[in-house]
Amino acid sequence: MPAGNIVTASPISDLNPVLMASGTVLTAQSKTRGEFPLLMKEFFVAYRTMALPADSIITKLTIPLPAEGTREVIKSYKQAKRKDDDIAIVTAGFRVVLDESSVVTDISLAYGGMAPKTVEAKNSMEALLGKKLFDNTVLEDAVAAMEKDSPLGFTVPGGMPTYRKTPASLFLFRFWHEVAAELELGTQEQQVDHETIEEIHRGISYGSRDNDNPYEQRFVGKQIPHLSGMKQATGEAEYIDDMPNIEVNFAPALQVPCVAGFVDINDLDDGRNLWGSVKKDEPFFAKDFVHSHGQPIGMVYAKSAAIAQAAAQLVDVQYEELPPILTISEAIAVKSFFPHGKMLIRGKPTAEGFKDCDFVYEGVARMDRRTSTSRPMLPR
């Protein structure tokens, strides 16, 4: 849905630069203001922030069409790590209008990925406006002005400031040639570079493995199987073990020379034992239960990493094996699931709504192997 993609205000949106360049007008609906317009060029005010009031929704997009005979060209561009189905590094939407003398009368150069929000390259637009488009000097001035439009430093979020400036300039260079080709602006003295505007198509990558290595030595060049490869291939590898920690005896490890000590859950309070990149809800040391194979129980520290690793193998851990949880019903029975996230609730309570129904059908709908829900079905 276009409206949903717009209001997320992503600075690397594929769609927003095109809508901005085309002069799109958004129509919003609000309880307090009713219906009102918003210009796409003024819609984005900061990173992930837009001019849409909190009580409003977008109901319509209006993209103006050029009058018949208008010499207008609009193009979109995207640079990503993959050719298709990938998040953009830099996106662009360009529109230009020329008069009969090929002079630029209106232009919009909108970029994504060059600022915290979708922006227009104002300096480059000014360098082109009122000038004859297909002129090398004009193009050079526009590309030079782009340095002022995108002052990306090395601390910019997402990184790659130098790289991102390159496709931004190349997009303009390609657009310049595509407009010239589409409107037949080429002359004998200055011709369109068709290699610049032709699409590059690549075949599917493929490869093969040669198991014969004539240069194989004792270690260098030798094909060594992964340590866990055999267990994973035969199904013997353990991934999840639901077992509580009954007793941990670090005494044997402490007898090893140069071992300084150990730490475990008893050395940390509950707050310090939680970590996570976004939400700190992952325990560092197991407490009461060990939920997965390899989950840390404690840590031995010694004079060297090798000594600590050897001593850790001597730690005696006693487990009480619990029945494995393999089905959704088993997980629900022992409450082994994550808490619910956000819930969308609208209208009267469900129980009251059922009272007004002529028929109520109940059943269990299994969405997949990980999700189960009991959902009453109301006929319309």
From TrEMBL:
Matching Pfam families: Ald_Xan_dh_C, CO_deh_flav_C, FAD_binding_5
Domain FAD-binding PCMH-type: 1-68
Regions annotated as coiled coil: none
UniProt keywords, alphabetically: Oxidoreductase
Record-level Gene Ontology MF annotations: FAD binding; iron ion binding; oxidoreductase activity
Keyword Oxidoreductase: yes
Protein name stated in the entry: FAD-binding PCMH-type domain-containing protein
Lineage of producing organism: Eukaryota, Fungi, Dikarya, Ascomycota, Pezizomycotina
